[in-house]
Every structure is written in C-alpha cells, then in structure tokens.
TrEMBL record:
The keyword RNA-binding does not apply. GO terms for cellular component: ribonucleoprotein complex; ribosome. GO terms for biological process: translation. It comes from the Eukaryota. One of its GO terms (molecular function) is structural constituent of ribosome. This is Ribosomal protein L20. Pfam families: Ribosomal_L20. The keyword Ribosomal protein applies. SUPFAM superfamilies: Ribosomal protein L20. Belongs to the bacterial ribosomal protein bL20 family. Keywords: Ribonucleoprotein, Ribosomal protein.
C-alpha cells in the first residue's frame, strides 16, 4: 500500500485498523463494572447513576486513605490504653511503671507491652512485679500484690537502675501541613 502524507498523518504504520474507517473508542464497560463493584451496596442515585456513583467512590477512597494515615496513631493510642488497663489489674500506675522500665533500660514500647499483657500474662505480671520492687526500693508508694499472686523478687537497684537512655528523636517526614512550607534539609548529625 502506497502511503500518502494524509495517510501518514491519520494512521500509525502497521495499525490493526482500516485506514479510512473510524477507529472505535474503547468500551466503558470495564470502568462501569469497577464503579459498580465499589458502589453496589449504596442507595438511590449513588448506585443507580454514574455521576452519583463516581461521587460516592471518591468519598469512599478519601475515607480509606484517611483511615490508612490514622492507623499508626490509633495503634499507639490503643496500645497505651491496653497497657494502662493491664496495669490497673495489677495495681500499678502507668507513669511509675514506664519510669522504672526506662531507668532499668528495658526498651519495650507500648505495643510490645500490650501484646505481652494479652498473650503472655505471666510474663507481664513478672515484669510488673519487677517494676514494683524497684519502685518500692526507690521510695515510691506502691500497692503490694496479694500473697497468692505475688512473685518473690530480689533486685539490687544499684546494679539495675541507671540513667535512662535518651529518647529517640522522631523527625517529621515530608512537607508541612497542606504543603505550604518546604521540608528543611537534614543536618549531618540527624542522619
């Protein structure tokens, strides 16, 4: 087939379509099928019309991304609440417990402690007994355990208690709120 300038402009070489017929547009069936899959459980125009369904789909994805962004904060919050509840069972205050753990260089975060309290209650109870004994030796007011549930703990606080390790600095990632300020460059000591 001889290619004229007009043919070169209209069609790509070796195209599967006829050079003089209209190229068919891609079918919208796949897009609509995906849209129906996400909005099938909605009501009224959010399910039966395309515009309403797209609007609802945007809202669904917005809420999903909000949930994904809040997940880590919620995990930390719920872990702290679980640890506080578990410590209330053992008559220990959260602040005293965390202070004693940080002074004795036991580096367990609230997520690990909450998992210990849920899945390993004996290990958590022994950790609480250890913290109570150290707190008692430090002169803090601590409610002793019942005799049937108590552990016999002997701790020399001079060898165990030290200056707490410095807390790790958490640097924010990315730009500031609404990307109004550019993120600053990291200094050498921050790497």
């Amino acid at each position: 087939m001889h290619l004229s300038t007009t043919l070169s402009l209209r069609r790509i070489l070796n195209s599967g379509f006829h050079p003089f017929q209209v190229i068919p547009k891609p079918d919208v069936w796949m897009k609509r099928e995906r849209l129906n899959r996400f909005t099938a459980w909605q009501y009224a125009s959010e399910r039966s019309t395309v515009k309403g369904a797209y609007r609802k789909e945007d809202k669904i994805f917005t809420y999903l991304s909000m949930q994904r962004e809040d997940e880590k904060k919620l995990e930390k919050f719920h872990a702290e609440e679980r640890v506080r509840t578990a410590l209330a069972e053992h008559d220990m205050e959260y602040s005293k417990f965390k202070t004693v753990l940080s002074q004795s260089h036991i580096l367990l975060d609230n997520i690990c402690l909450s998992q210990l309290a849920i899945y390993e209650p004996r290990s958590f109870r022994s950790l609480v007994a250890f913290a109570k004994e150290l707190a008692r030796q430090e002169g803090m007011n601590v409610i002793p355990d019942d005799s049937e549930f108590s552990y016999d703990v002997h701790v020399d606080n001079k060898t165990v208690l030290r200056k707490p390790l410095p807390r790790a600095v958490e640097y924010t990632r990315g730009a500031a709120e609404n990307h109004t300020n550019k993120p600053r460059k990291l200094r050498e000591e921050e790497y």
